[in-house]
Write a structure and sequence with these properties.
8-stranded mixed sheet; two-stranded antiparallel sheet; 8 helices
Length: 300
C-alpha cells in the first residue's frame, strides 16, 4: 500500500541518518582553563583549528583577558567565558552549560614583581598579585576536577620540580611569620597536591610536567619524556609552550596517554641527530610504562 511504502521510506531514511551519525564521530566538548594565558591559549587555538574534532570553550580570568583573546583574532566570543576558578559554583555552571568529555587545566597562579627589592640579594621580590598558589593551584584545580563527571578525561599542565620541596619556585611569594612559620608560596607543592587529588578521584587523567617554558615555535624540536625530574635523554631543561600544548592535545586523541603522569622537555633545535617529534604514540611508549612516583617529594 501507499502508507506502507511511505513508512518503509521513512524507516530507510532514519536508518541511513543513524548509520551516518555512527560513522561520524561526535565533536568532543572540551573545557580549557587558563585560555587567556600563553600555554592555555596555544591549546585552545589548536582545538579551534580542528572544528570537526573539538568543540572547546576557553575560560579566562577577567573581561580584559577575554577582550585581548578575541581582539587577537581567530577566537569567537561565544567560545570564551570569564570564570573565577576559585569559585566552585562558577566552574560547575560552565561545565553544566557546555558539557565536557575532557577538561584541560592550564590555569595557574602567576608570579609578578611586587615592586620591592630583596635587601640581601639585591633582586626584585616576586609575589602572586592575582591569587596565591593555595587558592589557584589547589582550590582552583580541585574545583575544576570536582566539576567533572567520573568519566571526564582531565589533562593538567603542571611543572617539573615536584620531587624537590626546596625548588626555587616554591620560595616565590613565601613569607616568614613572626613565630618562625611560613605562609604563601609553595606553588609546586600545591600543584602536586591537586595532581594527587585527581589521581585519587579515579577520573581518567594525563598530567604533564613541563620543564622551563620558552616562547619559541613548536614542532621544531625532538621532545623527551621522563619521570621524577630525571635529566635523562637531554641536558636541556626547557620546552616551548606550543609543544606542551601539542602534547596535551595529543593526550586527548591517544588512549595511551590516559592515566599517565610524566615530565616533558625538548632537545635544542640544533642538537645533532635530533629530529622534530611527529609520532606521539612512539613518544609515550618511550616511557616503557613508567609514571611519576608521588611518594617522592612533598605536597601540602
Amino acid at each position: 500500500s501507499i502508507m506502507r511504502s511511505i513508512s518503509f521510506r521513512s524507516f530507510f531514511l532514519m536508518a541511513s541518518v543513524s548509520a551516518l551519525s555512527a560513522a561520524t564521530p561526535a565533536r568532543r566538548k572540551v573545557v580549557v582553563s587558563g585560555a587567556g594565558g600563553q600555554t592555555g591559549q596555544h591549546l585552545f587555538r589548536k582545538m579551534l583549528a580542528l572544528p570537526e574534532e573539538f568543540d572547546p570553550v576557553g575560560l579566562v580570568r577577567s573581561e580584559e583577558s577575554k577582550a585581548a583573546l578575541i581582539e587577537a583574532g581567530g577566537v569567537p566570543e561565544s567560545a570564551v567565558r570569564v570564570v573565577d576558578v576559585t569559585n566552585t559554583a562558577d566552574v560547575q555552571k560552565v561545565v553544566e552549560e557546555h558539557g565536557s568529555s575532557a577538561f584541560c587545566i592550564c590555569s595557574s597562579a602567576k608570579p609578578a614583581p611586587t615592586g620591592e627589592m630583596n635587601e640581601e640579594s639585591g633582586r626584585p621580590v616576586f609575589g602572586f598579585p592575582n591569587g596565591m598558589p593555595e587558592q589557584v593551584d589547589w582550590i582552583g584545580q580541585k574545583n575544576q576536577i570536582d566539576a567533572c563527571t567520573s568519566d571526564t578525561h582531565v589533562v593538567i599542565c603542571s611543572s617539573m620540580g615536584g620531587t624537590d620541596p626546596n625548588n626555587f619556585l616554591n620560595t616565590i611569594g613565601r613569607t616568614t611569620n613572626s613565630d618562625g612559620t611560613t605562609s604563601g608560596g609553595n606553588i609546586i607543592m600545591w600543584k602536586r597536591k591537586a595532581e594527587m587529588y585527581l589521581i585519587d578521584s579515579g577520573r581518567p587523567y594525563t598530567i604533564v610536567h613541563p620543564g622551563g617554558l620558552i616562547d619559541e615555535p613548536g614542532s621544531e624540536r625532538e621532545l623527551v619524556l621522563g619521570v621524577d625530574d630525571s635529566q635523562e635523554g637531554t641536558e636541556s631543561r626547557t620546552v616551548p609552550r606550543e609543544d606542551v600544548a601539542e602534547v596535551m592535545l595529543q593526550a586527548l586523541k591517544n588512549d595511551a596517554y590516559v592515566n599517565r603522569s610524566f615530565d616533558l622537555r625538548a632537545k635544542p633545535v640544533d642538537e645533532e641527530d635530533a629530529s622534530p617529534t611527529t609520532d606521539f604514540q612512539e613518544l609515550i611508549e618511550s616511557l616503557n610504562g613508567k609514571n611519576c612516583d608521588y611518594t617522592l617529594g612533598e605536597s601540602m
